[in-house]
Amino acid sequence: MKLVAGNWKMHDRGADLASAIRAQLGAPGVEVLLCPAFPYLREVGEAVAGSGIALGAQDLHWEPRGAFTGAVSARMLLDVGCTHVIVGHSERRLLFGDTDAAVAAKVKAAMAVGLIPILCVGETLEERDAGFAQRRIRSQVAAAYQPGCVVAYEPVWAIGTGRAASPEHAREAARTVRDAAGADVRVLYGGSVNAANCAPFFEAADGALVGGASLDAAAFAAIVAAAEVAG
Ligand code: PEP
Predict the structure, then answer these.
(1) What pLDDT is recorded for position 154?
(2) Which atom of ligand 1 is nearest to the CA of 161?
(3) C-alpha–C-alpha distance, residues 60 and 87, integer Å
(4) What is the spatial distance between Cα 177 and Cα 141, in angstroms, rounded to a whole number?
(5) Which contiguous run of DSSP H or E holds residue 57?
(6) Which whole number is the average pLDDT over 117-124?
(7) Which long-range contacts (CB under 8 A, 24 or more apart) does 100-107 make?
(8) pTM (2 decimals)?
(9) What is the span of the domain harbouring residue 198?
């Protein structure tokens, strides 16, 4: 079954958007996951309770507790109803310095309490232009993947830019992820997915990680509908 995940990033949207999405979707025929900012997790969980829509966080710390000001542990995410957590998003890697080692530790911490990590991988524009895209994807998967993770292929140059990868590029990347992680891994595509361009990505991959378009209930519902068509 396809998985469509919405990454709301640091936008102050909570139960309002979750309720609007729930109303648009009815009973979704694919897996749907909403990932609001930490303070809104509980209210989003309440807004989607009983709908089949799952709750995810955008990051976590690898330690279970302690003097880590500003950080949130895997157990805390579980306590507010999360089933999933995004790990290694390129914004975390590039803006907050998350290394491959940190990403690997976060994946382990999430899995230790039963959260499903959505491990994000993807090359920068410079790596793509230098012909290193597939090598970069392989190295990020090798550094952090554990069986049971979902992998989101998100080329950095496609995130928030309005320039999605071609479906062929996404398909090749998904193949590279499967070569590195095993044939059973679920691979999502992310990077400027919207209601108009999403359909081919559901042929190329097992779902989508959606940023900007997930903040609009109608657009997100249209993406979910396209995933349902793809099966
Ligand atoms: C993302 O942030 O994971 C993402 C894919 O963003 P956008 O859809 O806005 O490119």
Answers:
(1) 98
(2) 10
(3) 8
(4) 7
(5) strand 54-57
(6) 98
(7) 100/139, 100/140, 100/143, 100/144, 101/143, 102/62, 103/140, 103/143, 103/144, 104/143, 104/144, 105/62, 106/59, 106/60, 106/61, 106/62, 106/144, 107/144, 107/145, 107/146, 107/149
(8) 0.97
(9) 3-230
Q: Which atom of ligand 1 is nearest to the CA of 154?
A: 5
Task: Write down the pLDDT at residue 165.
Answer: 95
Confidence label for 27 from pLDDT (cuts 50, 70 and 90): confident
Residue 164 CA, closest ligand 1 atom number: 10
CATH number at residue 34: 3.20.20.70
Centre of ligand 1 to C-alpha 219, Å, is: 14
- Indicate which residues carry an active-site annotation: 89, 154
Q: What lines the ligand 1 site, CB under 6 Å?
A: 7, 154, 159-160, 190-193, 209-213
Residue 42 has pLDDT above 90, yes or no: yes
Cα(67) to ligand 1 centroid in Å equals 31
CB 160 within 8 A of CB 194: no
Confidence of residue 45 (pLDDT cuts 50, 70, 90): very high
Give the Cα separation of 28 and 210 in Å (integer): 16
CA of 211 to the centre of ligand 1 (A): 3
Question: Count of domains in the chain?
Answer: 1
